[in-house]
């Protein structure tokens, strides 16, 4: 057991003793932890103890002492694992015997002690960008392989970036980049954590992390320029979600970059529109006419880009149900994704191929795991950097792996995609049959 100042305590029959001083002959003197009590004992280097002198008070209440021992153990666990939720620490660390002796008051005290223990080891939370930039310059950020982790600390534009030389070297040999942001796992001074993943050998590795104060095009440009200035080469293909500011920034920094829309994000965007129009219940009913019509749209991204508009006009419009919500959804698709003058024309998101690279939700999966690392939204900058360093340790392992085949679930989907593509190419099925077949396998929300 330890004190709040991390000093060791010795327990004996309900009494706590603290180390007092070292005597001649390497003999330790331990005295009662209660300052008004003169009880003590001596302990030799071989472990032999003298008799304990008398206390002038009663021993600790056994229930209180049990709670203190448990709290002590959980505080040390909480400090060792800064990102773990207090509720999970309580759930996993408390034994059934201890659980039977605890009450609501005990649990409340233990939670407070966990929070206090964590707060005590971290510097004060920066209250301004100026404080944050100064703190980051002095705060040691080294990976397990002793690489510097902080690579951008821009106090003019308030951009902070984390990566390592190993990550940047790995990125130069990747087949593609995937970028995505999260707005939950970000300190209060910033608006988002923007992450760049490298894709290689069927693996997606988080390599570069930017803390950005806004979602403006100019901010994305500065972030990408920082990356460009720190590496001599990046992949020629980038997969991004459907945010115009990011598209504009990418082409400003890398004019020859091949920009592709991620099918996963496209599906999410379309499904959110379905929800906003109050059509999600229709979508989820297998035999619903409106739902069946809406689900077909998710096969469009697998067509050749030049076929998308014809499929929409000639096939989908021919069976459009008479429903106000459906009309509004179709208008939304045309204005944003079908018209050649739209923000995201088919050339950006449609592709007839046997590749599943566009379809991945690797970035979304990463952000979900990242968000689950914190027990509250908008974590302290020190807690966030600790989590990112943990992720970096995992990235080191992923970068060493050479995966010779894709995961089984993707392999199954690829076989299906290849088979349906073959049917379409050999005219065993027409365009509309192809779209309907493939849409079922790649719905954003399964039935």
Radius of gyration: 30 Å
Total number of strands: 11
What is the number of helices?
Answer: 18
Shape: elongated
By CATH reckoning, the class of the largest domain would read Alpha Beta
Beta content comes to 5-15%
**Level of helix content?**
40-55%
Q: What is the oligomeric state here?
A: single chain
What is the residue-mean pLDDT, rounded to a whole number? 87
Rounded to the nearest angstrom, the distance between the terminal CA atoms is 53 Å
What's the helix-strand series?
EEEEHHHHHEEHEEEHEHEHHHHHHHHHH
CATH architecture of the largest domain: 2-Layer Sandwich
Widest sheet: strand ordering: 5-6-9-8-7-10-11
CATH topology (level 3) name of the largest domain: Nucleotidyltransferase, domain 5
The major β-sheet equals: 7 strands, mixed
Organism: Parthenolecanium corni
Domain MULE transposase: 178-266
Protein name: MULE transposase domain-containing protein
Pfam families: MULE (PF10551)
What does this structure look like?
The chain has 3 domains: 9-121, no CATH class; 129-262 and 377-400, Nucleotidyltransferase, domain 5 (2-Layer Sandwich); 264-356 and 406-441, no CATH class. It has a 7-stranded mixed β-sheet, with helices on both faces. A 4-stranded antiparallel β-sheet has the order 1-2-3-4, with no helix packed on it. The chain has 18 helices and 11 strands. It is α+β, with helices and mostly antiparallel strands and 447 residues long. The mean pLDDT is 87. 47% of the residues lie in helices and 15% in strands. The protein has helices at residues 62-80, 86-93, 96-101, 104-121, 129-138, 165-172, 217-230, 244-253, 263-276, 280-284, 289-296, 305-316, 324-338, 346-349, 362-371, 381-400, 408-425, 431-441, and strands at 9-12, 15-23, 27-32, 40-43, 150-154, 159-162, 176-182, 192-200, 203-212, 237-240, 258-261. This is MULE transposase domain-containing protein. Residues 178-266 form the MULE transposase domain. InterPro entries: MULE_transposase_dom. It holds the Pfam family MULE.
């Amino acid at each position: 057991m330890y004190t709040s100042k991390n000093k060791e305590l010795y327990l004996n029959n309900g009494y706590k003793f603290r180390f007092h001083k070292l005597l001649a002959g390497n003999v330790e003197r331990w005295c009662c932890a209660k300052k008004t009590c003169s009880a003590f004992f001596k302990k030799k280097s071989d472990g032999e103890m003298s008799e304990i002198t008398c206390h002038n008070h009663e021993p600790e209440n056994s229930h209180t002492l049990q709670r203190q021992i448990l709290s002590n153990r959980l505080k040390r666990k909480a400090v060792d694992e800064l990102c773990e939720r207090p509720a999970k620490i309580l759930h996993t660390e408390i034994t059934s015997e201890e659980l039977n002796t605890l009450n609501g008051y005990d649990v409340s005290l233990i939670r407070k002690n966990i929070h206090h223990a964590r707060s005590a080891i971290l510097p004060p939370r920066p209250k301004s960008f100026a404080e944050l930039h100064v703190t980051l310059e002095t705060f040691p950020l080294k990976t397990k392989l002793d690489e510097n982790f902080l690579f951008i600390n821009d106090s003019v534009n308030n951009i902070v970036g984390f990566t390592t030389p190993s990550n940047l070297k790995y990125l130069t040999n990747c087949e593609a980049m995937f970028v995505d942001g999260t707005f939950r796992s970000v300190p209060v001074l910033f608006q988002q954590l923007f992450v760049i993943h490298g894709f290689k050998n069927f693996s997606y590795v988080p390599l570069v992390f930017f803390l950005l104060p806004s979602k403006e095009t100019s901010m994305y440009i500065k972030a990408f320029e920082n990356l460009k200035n720190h590496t001599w080469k990046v992949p020629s293909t980038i997969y991004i979600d459907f945010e115009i500011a990011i598209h504009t920034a990418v082409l400003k920094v890398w004019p020859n970059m091949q920009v592709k829309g991620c099918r996963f994000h496209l599906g999410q965007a379309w499904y959110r529109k379905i929800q906003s129009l109050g059509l999600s219940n229709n979508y989820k009913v297998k035999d619903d006419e409106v739902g069946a019509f809406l689900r077909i749209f998710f096969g469009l991204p697998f067509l050749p880009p030049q076929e998308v508009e014809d499929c929409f006009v000639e096939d989908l419009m021919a069976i459009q149900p008479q429903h106000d919500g459906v009309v509004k959804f179709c208008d939304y698709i045309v204005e944003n994704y079908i018209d050649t003058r739209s923000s995201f024309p088919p050339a950006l998101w449609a592709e007839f191929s046997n590749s599943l690279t566009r379809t991945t939700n690797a970035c979304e999966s990463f952000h979900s795991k990242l968000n689950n690392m914190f027990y509250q939204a908008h974590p302290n900058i020190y807690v966030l950097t600790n989590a990112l360093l943990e992720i970096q340790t995992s990235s080191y392992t992923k970068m060493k792996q050479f995966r010779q085949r894709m995961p089984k679930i993707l392999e199954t989907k690829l076989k299906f995609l290849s088979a349906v593509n073959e049917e379409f190419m050999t005219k065993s099925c027409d365009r509309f049959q192809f779209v309907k077949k493939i849409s079922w396998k790649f719905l954003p929300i399964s039935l």
